[in-house]
Specification:
It is elongated, with a radius of gyration of 38 Å. It is built from three helices and 21 strands. It has a 16-stranded antiparallel barrel. The protein has a two-stranded antiparallel ribbon with strand order 15-16. It has about 425 residues and is an alpha+beta fold. The chain has two domains: about 1-65; about 75-430, Beta Barrel (Porin). Keywords: Coiled coil.
Length: about 425
């Protein structure tokens, strides 16, 4: 009996302990469940926010694609990419051994090279180009801007990668490589041929240039430019020598005055001076110079006239397909070439998508000076170049142009030997 009471007391004490501890355990479990519920709710909210973020990014990508044309660099400069893909072709009945225009070197009539370079088709994409313009945030009072542009049109074969433009601008200053201040490419009549025609210029040189707006219509630009030393040498039986030791003493000084009319017509006068010097023989030098006048006249809203005239003495870099800048006589004195060029062309828009240009280019060298007498028997030097062309461009949509052109030209040496260039040019261009 006593043992039964003891067992009862033990069970009662154990039950009491269970009853005492049970509420404590129950409370802990409730807290844990509450915390777990809060964590699940927080996770669900985070997942919902992540899904919303992904949906927003997807919608943004669909409505606003990435702009690869306008970008910002790490340093904060704005960059604009541009360029074109260009396919050119030519079928030449007669002409040089190159893909593009080379009127000064077309084979002479009756020569073996004339027949070898007749009736052939050539094509290339070498005139394709790409580049970018950029501008920084203000550095002081003004922004620093610039351009870098490249293509595959370099070298003697016009098939080498090269830098066309690479320069910086700040306010009215430009430093770097770009069109010579003496160039007036905007006045040259449009051609399908990427090498232009007689009287054209594609000179890009290192320079420092300052432009000053005189008023809203007139602008003055002055520059110091790399004058490009004459280092052409020859071999054979010529009656003269060319200069293997040409050197530069001073940069070329160039000035240009532009005037723009209210209707978009323009005129400009240009001039340059360069000292040519050599260590060849007893040493000699002379002042090379050139003067030019050109412009464009808006005859009607659909018809534009372009023209340009140049007179140059003792220089080759400013006009395509010119003769040697100078040669030496028997006393090792420098004798400069002197010549004139004229280009003129009329462009008419028949519709917003179709335009056509009729153009003519002419070069005439001085035939009565020491240079002419010394090179008279050299078939690479020309007394006269002339070339005419007519083309049509079709612009079906803004970035696409198709062009077709007929071009005919002649060259005449100082000994009156003639060569002919007779070709059809085509092009397809996509600008981006």
């Amino acid at each position: 009996m006593k043992r039964s009471h003891i067992l009862i007391y033990k069970h009662a004490i154990g039950l009491g302990l269970i009853l005492i501890t049970l509420p404590s355990h129950a409370k802990t479990m409730e807290e844990q469940l509450a915390e777990l519920k809060q964590q699940v709710q927080a996770l669900e909210l985070k997942m919902e926010q992540q899904k919303q973020k992904e949906d927003d990014q997807k919608n943004l990508a669909q409505s606003s694609p990435i702009d690869l044309k306008h970008m910002i660099t790490k340093g904060g400069a704005e960059i604009e990419l541009y360029g074109n893909v260009r396919a050119d072709g030519t079928y030449q009945m007669k002409g040089p051994n190159t893909m593009y225009n080379y009127i000064s070197s077309v084979p002479l009539k009756g020569s073996e090279n004339e027949s070898h370079n007749s009736d052939k088709f050539l094509s290339t994409l070498n005139a394709t180009r790409f580049g970018f313009n950029f501008a920084t945030p203000n550095l002081g009072k003004y922004r620093l801007g610039g351009k870098v542009e490249m293509d595959f049109f370099g070298g003697a074969g016009r098939d080498t990668f090269r830098i066309r433009h690479a320069y910086l601008t700040y306010d009215k200053w430009l430093v770097g490589q770009t069109w010579s201040n003496f160039n007036a490419i905007e006045y040259f009549p449009e051609t399908v041929d990427a090498s232009l025609s007689v009287g054209g210029s594609l000179t890009r040189v290192a320079q420092i240039k300052y432009s000053y707006p005189i008023d809203k219509n007139m602008n003055l630009a002055v520059s110091l430019e790399d004058p490009k030393a004459e280092t052409v040498t020859t071999s054979g039986t010529q009656d003269f020598k060319t200069d293997p030791n040409a050197k530069l003493k001073m940069p070329s000084a160039v000035g240009r005055l532009n005037y723009k009319f209210e209707n978009g017509s323009m005129l400009s006068g240009r001039i340059f001076f360069t000292q040519k010097a050599t260590t060849f023989g007893n040493g000699d030098d002379f002042l090379s110079w050139g003067a030019a006048f050109g412009g464009k006249y808006q005859i009607t809203s659909d018809t534009l006239l372009r023209f340009d005239y140049n007179h140059i003495k003792g220089d080759t870099k400013n006009i395509l397909w010119s003769n040697y800048a100078y040669v030496f006589d028997t006393n090792e004195k420098m004798k400069p070439n002197e010549f004139d060029t004229l280009t003129i062309g009329l462009t008419h828009k028949f519709t917003p998508k179709i335009r056509s240009t009729l153009g003519f280019g002419y070069m005439l060298a001085n035939d009565d000076n020491s240079f002419a007498k010394l090179v008279r028997n050299d078939t690479t030097q020309n007394k006269e170049l002339k070339e005419g062309w007519i083309n049509i461009f079709y612009n079906p949509v803004k970035p696409v142009n198709f062009g077709l052109e007929y071009m005919y030209g002649e060259r005449k040496t100082f000994a009156d030997q003639k060569g002919i260039d007779n070709r059809v040019n085509v092009t397809a261009i996509y600008d981006f």
